[in-house]
Design goal:
Structural class: mainly alpha
Radius of gyration: 14 Å
Order of helices and strands: HHHHH
Strand content: under 5%
Mean pLDDT: 95
Helix content: over 70%
Largest sheet: none
Number of strands: 0
Distance between the termini: 38 Å
């Protein structure tokens, strides 16, 4: 049961991050999604876009904390940590 709640929180964290990336590109980029991501990868600022997308993880995290759904909040936190690892890997490669 606990693993299920952590997994749900993790998936919500990944979706919130993806939504944040999409929202950032929609609002601040003149190119489409694919072109922006390719340009970000080529010019080494993909990690910054991922980090800005991760800002949206605050909302489900604090909603889960407020509703005392600690394991779902833990899953969102794990998704955020995964994004930090992805950013670190993209910086070193």
């Amino acid at each position: 049961m606990i693993k299920k709640h952590v997994l749900i929180g993790f998936l919500i964290g990944l979706l919130a991050n993806a939504a944040g990336i999409f929202l950032y590109i929609l609002l601040f980029s003149n190119m489409d999604l694919e072109a922006t991501l390719q340009n970000a990868l080529q010019n080494d600022y993909l990690g910054k876009i991922i980090a800005l997308g991760a800002i949206l993880n605050f909302f489900p995290f604090f909603v889960f904390i407020k509703k005392n759904q600690i394991y779902k909040a833990r899953g969102v936190l794990l998704a955020t940590v995964l994004m930090a690892v992805v950013i670190a890997v993209t910086k070193f490669i």
